[in-house]
Design brief:
It is a single chain. The chain is of the alpha/beta class. It is built from nine helices and eleven strands. The strands form two sheets. The chain has a six-stranded parallel sheet, with helices on both faces. Strands 7-8-11-9-10 form a five-stranded antiparallel sheet. Helix 5 links the parallel strand 5 and strand 6. Helix 4 packs parallel to helix 5. The chain binds adenosine-5'-triphosphate. The site of adenosine-5'-triphosphate (ATP) has 21 residues, from helix 1 and strand 2.
Length: 219
């Protein structure tokens, strides 16, 4: 087993970890993937920079792969909560400066934070929230940037169709900023005060969560 000094260590190459590791590799990053499953390790051998078959709860094994030298580690073990917590704790002990851990429940997330994860993510819950928003009203997509701030993709509400963004006074009336705009069949361009909103345009707007949501639901 070699020692690597790399950028990203991804532990658990299931659906979430596998997708994340592949994306980082495609973006040109150096990625070491670790999993206990030899079949998974084999299937990622040509996709990631390095792969190692190892039990990430084993401190010796993690030391051997040089886990402590990675800038960022992602713990993408979900259902095996015990393995997820132990792995996070091993990475904390090895001094990894940025540990991102996936949680399946709120309690799991709380424990991961207590153990020392720097960022806890809830992919299933967050995707449920996004899809929920996209099903309600005219909203197409929804990203929570912070608990209090959101980015919403939505069809242009009727009340502003035919007006320029300046004329519609979207900031004053709705408390949001239109970031970019896409005509039907066209592509996105930056929004300017003179941009005239047409029927069927798609807008991406940023604002405080309740205001961005309310704008997305105007229809
Ligand atoms: P996903 O939804 O992303 O497919 P999941 O939430 O169902 O994953 P698990 O199946 O628990 O999560 O784990 C994901 C991956 O982590 C699996 O490929 C599994 O083999 C691997 N894994 C689990 N425990 C360990 C461990 N101790 N060391 C290394 N890899 C592990």
């Amino acid at each position: 087993m070699g020692r690597y000094e790399g950028e990203f260590l991804v532990i658990g190459l299931g659906r979430f970890g596998g997708g994340l590791a592949t994306t980082l590799a495609e973006l040109g990053h150096d990625v070491l993937g670790v999993d206990v499953d030899p079949k998974l390790i084999q299937s990622f051998a040509n996709v990631l920079t390095h792969v190692v078959e190892a039990d990430s709860t084993d401190m010796d094994a993690m030391q051997q792969v040089g886990a402590g030298d990675f800038a960022t580690a992602v713990v993408a073990i979900g259902t095996e909560i015990e393995a997820s917590i132990l792995t996070t704790s091993v990475l904390v002990d090895l001094g990894v400066p940025k540990i991102v851990a996936k949680a399946v429940t709120e309690a799991h997330g709380t424990i991961l934070e207590r153990v020392g994860a720097h960022r806890v993510i809830f992919p299933e819950r967050d995707m449920g929230v996004r899809v929920g928003h996209s099903l309600a009203g005219a909203m197409i997509d929804y990203f929570q940037l912070d608990p209090g701030f959101a980015l919403v993709e939505t069809t242009a509400p009727q009340v502003i169709v035919g007006k320029t963004l300046a004329g519609a006074e979207v900031r004053r009336r709705y408390g949001i900023t239109v970031v970019c705009i896409k005509p039907e069949g066209g592509s996105f361009t930056y929004a300017t005060p003179d941009t005239v909103v047409q029927e069927g345009d798609i807008l991406v707007v940023a604002g405080e969560t309740p205001r961005a949501e309310a704008f997305g639901e105007l229809g």
